[in-house]
Structure formats: C-alpha cells, structure tokens
Design brief:
The complex is a heterodimer of chains A (about 350) and B (about 280). With about 350 residues, chain A is an alpha/beta fold. Chain A is built from 13 helices and ten strands. In chain A, the strands form three sheets. Chain A has a five-stranded parallel β-sheet with strand order 6-7-8-9-10. The longest helix of chain A has 17 residues, at about 30-45. By secondary structure, chain B is mainly alpha-helical. Helices cover about 40% and strands about 10% of the residues of chain B. Classes of the chains: A alpha/beta (about 350), B mainly alpha (about 280).
Chain lengths: ~350, ~280
C-alpha cells in the first residue's frame, strides 16, 4: 500500500521475475546477449539513484526480491511472469522452483504464473496439466519469440496454440500474458505484429489476453486491437520507466491507452528485476499529463488507483482491503472511450480562457 | 578491445589526407556519405544519422580498393529482418561507388551476426540468408513502413495546424489542403513521404488521406487523426529509445548521432554511470 496526500493506493505489480542470468547458467552467447540487453534497458531508463551493478543484475534471489517489492516497494501483491528461454539458459531464465516456492510460502503476496510452448506438443500439454495442479495456476506467460530448435517463434493464432488455449480453459487458467519479441517466422512480416492476439481474443472470449509492454514498439497496433476486443488488456511492463527520462512520451502512451482501451484494462508492472517498483509507484502517483498536451484529459486519482492495482486485483480475484477499494467500475466495453473526456477538457480550457 | 568511433587502418588508405573531426580520409568520407541513403525502415532515418555506422575503412589490396564497413545496432535482439535490410542496403550503396572493387559489410554484436555476415559475404540475398524463416522478400515490410512514415508525417502537420489556432477542431482536419500548410520541415517531410507513396502533390490535395490517397468521410476524421497520432507517437518514441540504447550500449556513440527534434525531451541525454564496454569487436 502506498499513501500520499491523504489518498491510499493498493499496489499490484502484475509482471515480475525471479531470474538467473549468471554465467554458470548461460548456455551460449545469446544468454549473455539477452541479459546485457535487459541491463542496457535498465541503465538507459533508470534514475541514477536506482542503478544496479551488473553483478547485482544477474541474479537477485528470493530475499532481495521480497525486500525490493514488499519492504521497500509498497507492493501488496505481485505476479510472476516467467520467461523460460531454454535455448539461452541451462536451467531456464525465470526460476520456476524458486519462484513457485516463494509464492507458496507467501500466498497472500505472490501469485506464480507458469509458461507453455505450443511447439512441445502432447508432452507440453501434459506438463501444463501437471503444473496447473501443482501450482493452482490462474495464468500463463507466453513469449512468442522463444527459440525452439530450428524455430524462433510462434503465433497465438497457430492451431497448436489453440489446443493449449482449450486446455487452459479446461484447467481454469484464465489469464494469458503475452510478450512480443523480435524474431518470428516468417521474417518478411513485422515481427512485432500483434494481429495474432486479435484472432485468439476473438476466438477465446472467456480468456483474458494481457499484452505486455502494451505492444511497444507497436503501440498503435495494440491500441487498435484492444479497443475492439473487451478481453484484451495492456500491461505497462517496460512502458513504466519512461516516466523518468521521457515523461512526455510516457504521457502520450498513457493518454493513448486511456483513449483507446480505457482506465479499467491497464495493469501497472515494474517488470522487476528490470526495474524496482518503489520509484515507479512514487513517480506515477505524482505524474500528470503536461498542460500543453490538450489532446489528453488530465489523469484522475481514481484512474491511478485502478492502474496501480485495482484492475489486476479484479482480474486475479485478489482481496483488496475495503478502505483501498473504489466503487465498482463500469463493465469494459469496446471502442475509444476518451473522446468525451477530451471534449470536456477542451470546454474547461475554453471556459478558463474566457472563450 | 575498446573501439574508437570510426576507426580506420592507418597507413593503408589510398588517400592519406584525413578530416580532423571525423578521422576519415576523403574516400572514407565518400563511402560514409554513400550510406546516407540507407534507412532504418522503422525509424525512417538514415543509419548515418542514427550512429549505426561503427567504422569505415578504405584499403588498397591485391584485388583493388576494398571498403570495409562495420554496423552496430542498439541491442543484440534488434529485429533480424531490419538488421539484414540495412546491412544489405549498405552493401549495395557502397558497391555502386565507381572507385570501389570489393565491399565488406559486417554487422557487429547481433544475435544473428554470423548468419547475416555470411549471407552478405556470399551475396545470398534475404531468402538465401534466412532460408526456412523467410517466405517472401522484404518488399511488403518496406511498404508497411513507408506507409507508417507517411501517416506520422501527416499527423505532425495536422497537429501543428490544430495547435496554431485553438478554435480549430479535430473534425476540421479533414478539410485541410496542402496549400493550407505553412512552409516548414514537417511540410517538406510530408511531401517527400507522399512522393514515396506515389501520391500527388497538388496544392488542392487533402492532407488527411490514407496510403492510397483516399480521404475520410466527415464522421471518420477524428478517429483517422487519432490513429495517425498513435502511429506518430510510436515512431518518435522508438526513434529516441533506440538512439538512447545505442548510446548506452556503445560509449561515445552519441557523438555519431545527429539531433532529432521530433519527440525530443530534455532527459534524452541524461547522465549514465560509465561502465566497461561489454561488447567486443569481432
């Protein structure tokens, strides 16, 4: 819980990891390239006071995670979204057993989501069933650019993936978090294309599709799909830290999301350990759309409360203390919903200017 | 091994006079400028402005004059199709120089460096390089990003137009014609993007059109403008993020980048703790 200026905020960090990228776990040069890429993101977007050393960055462990999120970071509940990356790391990148054990020790604070890869066929379906029973899964994280033998990616709209979604449905795994990366066959198309999310969301209306880093670098394609599909959500992993170095860009991202998909379908994430939640939560509560960006309505406290935790809490069925709740939000609908707010703001601005 | 920007092999260049500011000989400079036509399709900017050209070297060999160019990108996992496209365009641009006999273009520190560099050396082409991962050529991908570049340029012009007079409403943007736009960099840029798509440049032409030149019905105008805006935000956001990541990854590379005003923010050049250069030169 975070409180500021008499307001209290329930915080759900909807995308965290417990990774191990130390050299002994790197399977090849790509393991090093992958964590180096993350570390450059960290160095490029963090405030100087929040920079970690490269060694700290390679591996944190459970104690450090608990401190960064819950002791220092105001987080009430966090959700593991592991990336497997078995072609890059000997024991995988996200540490399944360590993370799941931590979640079992702190069920009020942590949820463990698992992962699957549709290219694993029947054996993968059996493994998913076993994991669902073992961990009582509510969600999975999919990395569509995962390498797998000769293949360097798959689509949510592939028939094999649909078989896995059908099993998710049977097992009560409702939340499908999707991360888009660069390499997907065939390479002739835009590798960040989110069109497959559109197909899957249309065909599986009882599943929620959370597109991580709100489809960046293709924000516009994500917004266009998400505005039409009521079961598509936007996760702010990687988008959040722009609040520090590039606040105007961040304002536009939030402004576009509120316009196209509305305040009920956006999830806060620190993307720990890429960044820590403390400074992101503090910055977001203080954040406001710059006044010269008249195309966007100002952010309200209620919107911030929803984004920081109430939206994810609703989807994951988390217990939110009564004093941190808001009156029940409207049901999600389709189509852009920012137009009225902007018109109101334009009128307000005119009124202020004496027009 | 640490790398100075635009290193060259001293003493082997056929042209000994060097430019003090760039450290390049006249021919190396010609080779560098020849790369101005090589664009990052997504960011819609030349690789020479983005700092993606790591080194240019011109040497006299037994087989004649050889130009060697190393390219670098903001991350190891930048999209391999874009990486290939830029590297092969660079090879084509250098090969067309009349005094050049052999061209070596290599992409450094990328997850597909070995694959792409081997493909370039063998002139294997895109499909020959990526084999089962490629179905068609990259023409459609290039076309997609030409359309996005036009959309972003159009939105910049119309947002300038809206901001110039607060009485103007989004719905009016559908009636703005090319002659209504002031002389500006944004207008010039829009005209170039229209030309690239084969759209006409008449003074009476509407500004808000799709990639085929079709205008929008009155009720569709605000939505079309909004969609164009989200495209522009993506392009500008990516351009600055990629530039920033390159500066983070390669110390000193900021000196090889030109300023980009669209989407610029004060924090773009924030201080970074100096760090040992992780990347090694292949």
């Amino acid at each position: 819980m975070y409180s500021k200026d008499g307001e209290k905020y329930y915080i759900c960090d909807a995308h965290i990891a417990l990774w191990d990228a130390r050299p002994e776990n790197q399977r090849n040069v790509h393991g090093k390239q992958f964590i180096d890429c993350f570390y450059d993101y960290h160095r490029n977007l963090s405030p100087e006071s929040e920079l970690w050393t490269y060694e700290e960055y390679l591996y944190q462990g459970g104690d450090r995670l608990m401190k960064d999120l819950f002791t220092d970071g105001y987080v009430d509940h966090a959700i593991f979204q592991p990336a497997y990356l078995g072609e890059f790391y000997e024991r995988g990148f996200g540490q399944e057993e360590e993370a799941a054990a931590l979640a079992q020790a702190h069920p009020d604070k942590l949820t463990y989501n698992h992962h699957f890869d549709p290219r694993n066929g029947e054996a993968g379906l059996d493994a998913l069933r076993a994991a669902a029973e073992k961990y009582d899964l509510k969600g999975v994280k999919l990395y569509t650019a995962e390498w797998h033998g000769d293949s360097r990616g798959y689509k949510l709209s592939d028939p094999e993936t649909y078989r896995y979604f059908e099993v998710c449905r049977e097992l009560g795994i409702r939340n499908i978090h999707v991360h888009k990366g660069p390499t997907i066959r065939p390479l002739d198309r835009d590798a960040f294309d989110v069109a497959d999310v559109d197909h899957a969301a249309t065909d599986f209306t009882d599943l929620n599709f959370v597109v991580e880093h709100v489809g960046l670098p293709r924000l516009e394609d994500f917004c266009w799909i998400a505005t039409q599909e009521p079961n598509v959500y936007g996760g702010l992993a990687v988008a959040m830290p722009f609040i520090h170095t590039r606040p105007r860009y961040f304002a536009q991202i939030i402004g576009e999301l509120l316009y196209w998909i509305g305040e009920d379908r956006i999830f806060f994430s620190s993307d720990y350990a890429l960044w820590t939640p403390k400074w992101l939560v503090e910055s977001f509560v203080d954040f406001q759309i710059p006044e010269d960006m008249t195309e966007y309505a100002p952010l309200t406290t209620a919107q911030k409360k929803k984004i920081l935790g109430l939206n994810a809490a609703k989807v994951y069925g988390l217990d939110v203390p009564a004093e941190l709740q808001l009156p029940d939000a409207d049901e999600t609908t389709t189509g852009p919903r920012g137009a009225d707010d902007v018109a109101e703001r334009a009128q307000d601005t005119n009124a202020l200017a004496g027009v | 091994m640490s790398i100075a920007p635009l290193e060259r092999s001293a003493g082997r260049s056929p042209d000994q006079s060097t430019d003090q500011s760039t450290g390049r000989s006249a021919r190396e400079d010609q080779a560098f400028r020849a790369l101005d036509v090589v664009m990052d399709p997504e960011l819609d900017e030349p690789v020479t402005d983005l700092g993606f050209v790591r080194s240019v070297d011109v040497a006299q060999t037994d087989a004649g004059v050889r130009v060697s160019v190393h390219l670098r990108l903001p991350t190891s996992f930048c999209s391999p199709n874009f990486a290939y496209l830029m590297a092969s365009d660079a090879k084509d641009a250098l090969t067309s120089l009349p005094w050049v006999d052999t061209v070596v273009v290599e992409l450094d520190d990328h997850h597909d460096s070995d694959l792409i560099n081997a493909g370039l050396a063998a002139d294997a082409g895109y499909r020959g390089t990526f084999r089962h991962e490629a179905e068609r050529d990259l023409d459609e991908l290039r076309a997609t990003f030409r359309r996005k570049a036009h959309t972003a340029a159009m939105e910049r012009c119309l947002t300038d137009w809206l901001r110039a007079d607060r009485d103007r409403a989004e719905a009016d943007a559908g009636r703005v014609r090319l002659r209504d736009l002031p002389a500006s960099d944004h207008t010039d840029s829009l005209l170039r993007r229209r030309e690239a798509l084969g759209l006409s440049l008449g003074a009476d032409d509407l500004v808000l059109v799709d990639a085929e030149g079709r205008s929008y019905a009155e009720g569709e105008v605000p939505m079309a403008l909004r969609r164009a805006r989200s495209t522009r935000i993506s392009v500008d956001g990516n351009a600055h993020f990629c530039r920033g990541l390159l500066r983070t990854r390669y110390e000193g590379s900021g000196a090889d980048q030109t300023q980009r005003s669209d989407g610029a923010e004060p924090g773009d050049h924030h201080h970074l703790i100096p760090l040992t250069v992780k990347e090694t030169h292949r």
